[in-house]
Design brief:
108 residues, mainly alpha, 3 helices
């Protein structure tokens, strides 16, 4: 009796290389599904209620501290956007920042 191979003769189709759509052709011609738009609109209609609830939780002294911090962070994120992640890279020899140099090589 012959053992089946791990691949069993079928190969996966690879996605097309480069841009799969011709210039001017949309990858999503019908746009965002209508149901998704309705869910977003419904959620946005509760914005004031949600913000008021977050503000009450953040201000309530009897609420657990973790709930107050989460509510305050949610309010700040909605008001000012989430902070960007930054990374500071320093050279171990002297603390100077790294320098990135990009040079174009000649074609010849």
């Amino acid at each position: 009796m012959k053992e089946p191979s791990a691949n069993s003769g079928k190969q996966r189709k690879k996605p097309p290389a480069g841009k799969p759509f011709q210039k001017g052709q949309s990858g999503n011609p019908s746009g965002r599904p209508k149901a998704l738009k309705e869910v977003v609109e419904l959620a946005r209609s509760h914005t004031i209620t949600a913000i008021e609830a977050l503000a009450q939780i953040a201000a309530k002294a009897s609420a657990p501290e973790s709930a107050r911090v989460s509510a305050a962070n949610a309010l700040l994120d909605r008001a000012w956007g989430k902070p960007k992640d930054t990374v500071a890279l320093e050279n171990a020899e002297g603390g100077q920042p790294f320098q990135i140099v990009i040079r174009k090589l000649s074609d010849g």
